[in-house]
Amino acid sequence: MTDASPQSDPAPRPPSASEVELVQLMELPDANLLGNVHGGSVMRLVDTAGGLAAIKHSGGAVVTVAMDEMSFMEPVRVGDVVTVKARVNDVGTTSMEVGVRVEAENPVTGACVHSSSAYLVYVALDGKGSPRPVPPLEPQTPDERRRQAEAKLRRQARLARKRAIQAARAAKGE
Ligand SMILES: CC(C)(COP(=O)(O)OP(=O)(O)OC[C@H]1O[C@@H](n2cnc3c(N)ncnc32)[C@H](O)[C@@H]1OP(=O)(O)O)[C@@H](O)C(=O)NCCC(=O)NCCS
After folding, report:
1. Which of 10, 38, 52, 107 could cross-link to 20 by cystine, CB 3.0-4.6 Å?
2. CATH number for the domain harbouring residue 48
3. 169 lines ligand 1 (CB under 6 A)
4. Structurally, how many domains does the chain consist of?
């Protein structure tokens, strides 16, 4: 079994160091009632690729804490070859936002569509299951800097929404 004990190198890392690409043929067990691929099968691949990117950046175990803005733009068909690309967009203290892009290719015709995109948040855990600090992210390119800036806006929105819900519950005594 892989050694999952956290590596403690705090040196900044570029987003490219966390890049992950999973390729999978979609088969009959992935089908929904319409005969296309079930959204949940795609989401599982997205979470797997996203988690691997977060593990690569943080050098240890992570858990998924949020998955948002999962959009399905085009259906994936049984028999398509799906490519799932993931990389870390930004980091907080213990959390990381990972951007994931799903492409589906018909291997017979070569036609390829951008099927889905998603943003997920992972938290790195230490050996006791508590959040642990992750290395800083050092974007290298204009695209990486843009993704980081946009990820910071999503982080603010997520945390503001969480605080607003907690405040509303507290006001009701829940
Ligand atoms: C992840 C977990 C350990 C965080 O616990 P917590 O008590 O909220 O810890 P903290 O308040 O210290 O937050 C840790 C980080 O998570 C982030 N976070 C917490 N809730 C969040 C949310 N809803 N959305 C985005 N980020 C969130 C915090 O901002 C913080 O990030 P930062 O250190 O970069 O600022 C806890 O929520 C957990 O165990 N969740 C279950 C995860 C799991 O089992 N996933 C698999 C599901 S099958």
Report:
1. 52
2. 3.10.129.10
3. no
4. 1
